[in-house]
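Q: Given only this backbone (261 positions), what sequence would you predict?
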C-alpha cells in the first residue's frame, strides 16, 4: 500500500489522474473501474483536462461502475449511471456504450448480479479501480459488517445511508431507494490496481483504520490491506490521524521516478 499525502485538492486530482493515466498510456484498451461521489471528482476533472489537451485518450477503454440503486427509472438523475455520465463520461472521449453498471431494473436481481460479475471477468478484469471511503469505512455500498469476501450482490441500505443520501433526492428520505446492487469487497479486490481518494477531516478515522488498523468487517475498507497494489491519495486533513504520516510523506518525496504507482 502506497500512501500519498498532498497539500490540496488540485494536487490530489493530478496525482490520481497520473495513477489512472499510466495504465491507459501503457494499454489504450485498459478496463477502468469508476466510482461516484465527491472524492474522485478532482481526478475526473484532471483526466478530462488531459483529454481536452490531447495528452490522453480514453476512447479505447471500457469501464464498470461500482454500484447502482435498485428500482430507479431509466434516466433518473440520481441513478449512478446518470451521475457518472454527468460527472465524467460527458467530458472525455470514453464511449458511453463502453460504460457498464449493475442492472438496477432487472426482474431477477440476483441473476443480474451474477451477470455483472461475469461481464467484468469477460472484459479481462478491471485494470485500475477508483474508490472513495465513507466516514464509517464503507467502500461502494459495502457497509460495516459486510463480508470481506463478498461478490456483487443486492444490499438493503441502512437508515443512516438513506438519510445521508436524501440530499440528492430533494431532502426526501422516502424517495431514496431501499436497495442497491454493489460490487462486493472480493470483487473490488480482484482489480489489479486500487486507487482510493479521501479528503477532509471527516474521513480521518476511516483512513486510519483503512491504512493502519486491523483488518475487520467493522471497517470494510481495511480489506484493502490484503491487496498487492493499492495507492491511497489523501489531503492533510484526511491523513491527520495516521501515526506514520511523516514516514509516508518522506517515502513519497524520495520515490524513484521510475517506480510509478
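A: Predicted residues:
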Amino acid at each position: 500500500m502506497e500512501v500519498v499525502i498532498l497539500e490540496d485538492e488540485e494536487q490530489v486530482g493530478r496525482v490520481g489522474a497520473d495513477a489512472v493515466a499510466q495504465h491507459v498510456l501503457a494499454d489504450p484498451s485498459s478496463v477502468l473501474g469508476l466510482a461516484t461521489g465527491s472524492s474522485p471528482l478532482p481526478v475526473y476533472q484532471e483526466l478530462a483536462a488531459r483529454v481536452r489537451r490531447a495528452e490522453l485518450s480514453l476512447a479505447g477503454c471500457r469501464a464498470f461502475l461500482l454500484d447502482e440503486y435498485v428500482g430507479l427509472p431509466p434516466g433518473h438523475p440520481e441513478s449512478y449511471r446518470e451521475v457518472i455520465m454527468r460527472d465524467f463520461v460527458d467530458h472525455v472521449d470514453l464511449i458511453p456504450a463502453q460504460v457498464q453498471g449493475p442492472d438496477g431494473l432487472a426482474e431477477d436481481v440476483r441473476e443480474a448480479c451474477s451477470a455483472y460479475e461475469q461481464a467484468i471477468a469477460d472484459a479481462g478484469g478491471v485494470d485500475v479501480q477508483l474508490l472513495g471511503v465513507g466516514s464509517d469505512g464503507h467502500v461502494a455500498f459495502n457497509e460495516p459488517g459486510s463480508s470481506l469476501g463478498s461478490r456483487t450482490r443486492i444490499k438493503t441500505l441502512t437508515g443512516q445511508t438513506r438519510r445521508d443520501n436524501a440530499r440528492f433526492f430533494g431532502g426526501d428520505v422516502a424517495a431514496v431507494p431501499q436497495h442497491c446492487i454493489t460490487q462486493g469487497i472480493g470483487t473490488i479486490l480482484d482489480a489489479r490496481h486500487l486507487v482510493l481518494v479521501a479528503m477532509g477531516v471527516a474521513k480521518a478515522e476511516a483512513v486510519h483504520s483503512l491504512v493502519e488498523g486491523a483488518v475487520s468487517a467493522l471497517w470494510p475498507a481495511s480489506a484493502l490491506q490484503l491487496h498487492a497494489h493499492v495507492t491511497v491519495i489523501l489531503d492533510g486533513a484526511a491523513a491527520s490521524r495516521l501515526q506514520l504520516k511523516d514516514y509516508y510523506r518522506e517515502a513519497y518525496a524520495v520515490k524513484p521516478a521510475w517506480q510509478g504507482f
